[in-house]
Design goal:
With about 150 residues, the protein is of the alpha+beta class. The chain has a single domain, classed as Electron Transport, Fmn-binding Protein, Chain A (Pnp Oxidase, Chain A). Helix content is about 20%, strand content about 40%. The protein is built from four helices and seven strands. A seven-stranded antiparallel β-sheet has the order 2-1-5-6-7-4-3. A hairpin with a 5-residue loop joins strand 1 and strand 2. It is globular. It starts with a helix and ends in an 8-residue tail after the last strand.
Length: about 150
């Protein structure tokens, strides 16, 4: 699935994203993460990407069950005056390595153009990148053509 230009514009502004994964008992586990978009690689569709320096609960959850949901606030309002927001339902996978580079790239959006991130104390770790392939996008905004 291709990610719309409207959603790309919101992501470029650095929204904090609520990432929901599933714990072993089926309960939700919610984390706030920085997001990027990767895509146009061969025949692959666009993906939302997140970097994690440690093997946190969200990484363990996705390794066991890749079903995830993301949500983040947009910048506009719809004709009824409701604030726009994006909800993404998809399947996530984990790759090892490259997390520090992705976090540095995202830090320029989230923290500023001259920041160095992650801290030196963890920068040499491979970390993990979570790739979320969107399967359905909902919420309030032009990306949800079925809204009233």
């Amino acid at each position: 699935m291709k990610i719309s230009e409207e959603i790309r514009e919101i992501v470029a502004m650095g929204p904090l994203v609520h990432l929901t994964t599933l714990n072993r008992d089926g309960s939700p586990q919610v984390s706030v993460v920085w997001v990027g978009i990767a895509g146009d690689v061969g025949d692959r569709d666009d993906e939302f990407v997140f970097a994690h320096m440690l093997e946190q609960q969200k990484v363990r959850n996705v390794r066991r069950d890749g079903r995830v949901a993301l949500s983040f606030i947009g910048t506009g309002t719809n004709p009824m005056g409701l604030k726009e927001y994006v909800v993404v339902y998809g399947t996530a996978t984990i790759t090892e390595g490259g997390a520090a580079d992705l976090l540095q790239e995202l830090a320029h959006v989230y923290l500023g153009p001259n920041v160095a991130f992650p801290p030196k104390s963890v920068r040499d770790r491979p970390g993990y990148i979570m790739h979320v392939r969107p399967e359905r996008i909902a919420g309030v905004g032009p990306w949800n053509a079925g809204q009233h």
